[in-house]
Each structure stands twice: as structure tokens, then as C-alpha cells.
Amino acid sequence: MKRLFTNATFVTMVDEFDTADALLVDDEGRIAFVGPLEEARKRAEGAEEVDLGGAAVLPGLIDPHSHFTGSLQYLLFADLSACTSFAEITETLKEFAAKRHIGPDGVIMGNGYDQNNLIEQRHPDKSVLNAVSEDIPVLITHVSNHMGVANDCLLKMAGITPATPDPEGGRYGRMDGTGDLDGYAEEPAAMNPFYAITTPRLGLDFNAMIGDMQRIYLEHGVTTCQDGATAPDMAAVMVGLAKAGLLQMDIVAYPMWGTDVMATLADNAEFDSQRYTGHFRFGGLKMFLDGSPQGLTAWMTEPYVEGPDGEKDWVAYSTMTDEDATAFAKIAIDSNHQLLCHCNGDAAADQLLRVYEAARDASDNPDKMGLRPVMIHAQTARADQYEKMAAIGMIPSIFSSHIWYWGDAHLRNLGPVRGGRVSACGDAARSGIPFTLHTDTPVLRPNLLEAAWCAVNRITKAGVQLDEDQKVTPYEAMRAITFNGAYQYGEEADKGTLEAGKLADLVVLDRNPLAVDPREIRDIQVLATIKEGETLYERDDQ
């Protein structure tokens, strides 16, 4: 259906100052015209006119890294993000289990605890969860999703005993002096045996949940999102949803290292394309090289101020050897796929730059220079590393929300200089890189406007001003979640700006983020989200 949107400021994102009075959508869901209202009306015969009441309209926001299938945590897990003590964690889980009537055949899951916010200032242990239940498996995951804690029941069901060795790239916590397990598990290699038990017990019905999962993104103005570490079973789920016509927004998936990624792509060959089928496609491959800085597992070149248990000279560790990482990167390059790689610490960033160049040099793929590899998170990337990324065509996708949520922890853990320059968007901008901003959902809700606010203002929860040299302008921040996001996916011909011929993916805001006081960007409200001319979300009080 043709639709003419009027009475709004259309912020095209073509440049910092370009705006229009009206936007016309054709029958195919593409922008037919954007410009003066009078001219738009001349072209709009038969179109439905939609008065937007003076709002601001930008291109639909593009999430450059999250875990779409992980958003089910918001629907099925207890929210531990507000807990400030072990006792509150126990009580929250008990109330959740009672409300959900979870019995011995089920599982009690919680997500979002942060040891930095607990009065105990450490991770919980299994005793905290044994107090919830001794008969039902209990698993809680850290806000970073890089670590978690299991109760004795789950440890037994997973076959994890004191004799179980730490897996490569992971670690099990042990009690001082006894060697007994304390329930803590660090990094996916250690946590996956728990998920093998808990996931089947959740009784997942994606057909029933998919509307709510998409709403989590749509209510934040996101029209394209990512499933950034897709296991084979989840790939099959997403393909099934796409074939059933249940996806409304575009979702790009990246099969994860540690599985037979090429088999996943071969089994779903019609979705291994730059074109979407039923709003779904595979975009490339994913690997990860370290953990999280707030969890003290990001791999650093210089020590943390203080490591776990007061350890000095702690720099954490890599989750992959150079040999394995180079081999996986070469698989991506040889098969003409984009590579995404999780790197939080600067040592991990060094490793990625090193192994990607080695893999690319060894590849015979004639198109290898145009694959746009992505460094995910880049929390402590140095200025020289951004310059190297620019030289080799690598895109940093920066988790800028760390500034507000964990900036104070980074100052404690890394010191004032390194902690003050986390999420160094300023260096990225000066290097000329089309950097992007993300929220790593379900670590945080996909609030990309807040991510932009963080990159612009660089204020922590405690009100500390981080390195102002790493600030970017509102235009640069909004560009990072519109055009640059489209560029990262190789979709800049269809998305990222409001121009004739592009998809009519729009976000309707109550204020223009380029015109308000930069301190107010986070307070801007999403009024509606429009995908290919169709309104998929509208705020209830509209």
C-alpha cells in the first residue's frame, strides 16, 4: 500500500543537516520520494496519508551485534539485575519459581547478576542456589553471559565433578583448600554442559514467543538485528520461523565457532545469501577470543589493577590458539563470508588483527579484500589498533553502553587511563572507520539511542566523566546505528539513510536526536517502528 508520511522532520542521515518535509512509500515498501511536501503530494495519488504529529523520523535503527535468540531470557528467566546481595538473588529465584510453579522436571534460570553491584563484591557460589532448591536444577548467568553459577543438582546432572578438568578457554571455580567445585563456571566452554541440561527443560515454543521476542527490538526502533552466535539447533529454529512467515524484522545470523559451521550453512543453503528469505539470512561466521572486562576475563596486554582473589599481574587469557583462530578465519575468507569476532581486551584485539591478516594472506579468494570483518565489542582497543583496522578494512562494533553501566568498574579494574578510554569511539572516528554501536542483547535491552547517548556524553553511573577525547558528535553516534550499521552488513544500498529507492524502514521519535541537548538523547521516546512501509510497533499511549 502506498503511504505518504507528513507533518514530521525527516532526518535523512545523508549528511548532518539534511532534512525533508514528507516521505512517500511505494507499493513495494520502498521510499518513492523524500523531500518537499508539495512535491510529495503531487506524486502521492492513491496513497494513504499519515500525519505524524510533528515527530522526527530517521532510518530504522540497525543493531550491529546482539543475540536475537537470547532475548528469550527476558521472557523465561528471573531478572537478577536489581539484586544487591546473595540473599536477594536467593529470594528473587524462589519467588520466580513459585510464581511459575516450576517442579522437579523443570529448571530455575536467572540472568543479569553483576558481582560489581553486590555487597559481597564477588560471584555467588552454589550455596546461594542450593538454598533455592536442592531438587531442581538452578542456573544463573552473569550480566555479560560469559560466566554463571550452578547448584549441586545441576552440577550432578551435567556430570561436572571435582575431577573434571577445566576446558580449553574456560574454567570451573573451586573452593580454597578442598578442590571441591563452588558452582562457578567461566566462559562458554565451561558453561555449555549446563546449557545441555537446562535448555531442553525450558519447553521452548518459538512460534508462540517470536512475537514478543521481536517486540523487544521493535519497541526500541530496531528494524534489522543480529543473532550473533547461532548454534545449529537455533539455525534450524530461525529457518523454520522464516519459512512460516513469522518474522517481521530482518535478522542476520552468524553460525558459531565450535560447531560445524559449514554444515549449518549447507543445510540451509537458500538462506546463505545477501538476500533475505522471509526476513532471515546468514551473514557470515562468528568466533570469540576472550571474555568480559567487568568479569576480569578480557585478555589484556597489561595487568588489571587487581585480578581474581587479589591476584597480581593478572591479564586473563585467550579462548583460542592462534592456530585455531587463523584456521577458522581462513574458513570464513575462503568461503567468502564475513567474520565476526568477540574481542574485549587489547591483547585479544592484537590476536584478531594478527590472525585475520595471516588467514587473508593465505587465502586464494579473489574477493577477500571486501569481506568487511568485524571486531565485536573493542572495549579496550588502542589507537594504533584502530589505525590498523582502518588499513585492513575491519569494522569495530563498539559496546558503548559499557560507559554508563560498567564505567565505574572499569576505572577500578583498569585504572584511570585505560578505564577512562573504554569504548574509544573518538579514536575510531578519527581513524575514518565506519564504526557501529551495539548493546549485545540480552546483556542489555537493544536501546541503541542509549548506546548513542553513551558515546556522545561518556558519563558513568556514578557521574564520572570519562576521557572526553573519546566523545563523538550526535551525528556520528546516530550514523553508527543507521548508515554504518547498514554498511557493516553490506546493505547500504537498501538501508541506513532516507533516500528514494531504499527500503522504507523508519523509526518515529518524539524528538530529533541531532537537535536536542546531547544530554537528552537517551530520553527520546520511540513512537513507532515501520518496516518496509508497514507499522510494526506503535507506542501504546499514542
UniProtKB/TrEMBL annotation:
It comes from the Bacteria. The keyword Cell wall biogenesis/degradation does not apply. Pfam families: Amidohydro_3. InterPro entries: Amidohydro_3, Metal-dep_hydrolase_composite, Metal_Hydrolase, YtcJ-like. Residues 48-537 form the Amidohydrolase domain. GO terms for molecular function: hydrolase activity, acting on carbon-nitrogen (but not peptide) bonds. Keywords: Hydrolase. This is Amidohydrolase family protein. It comes from Adlercreutzia mucosicola. The lineage of its organism: Bacteria, Bacillati, Actinomycetota, Coriobacteriia, Eggerthellales.
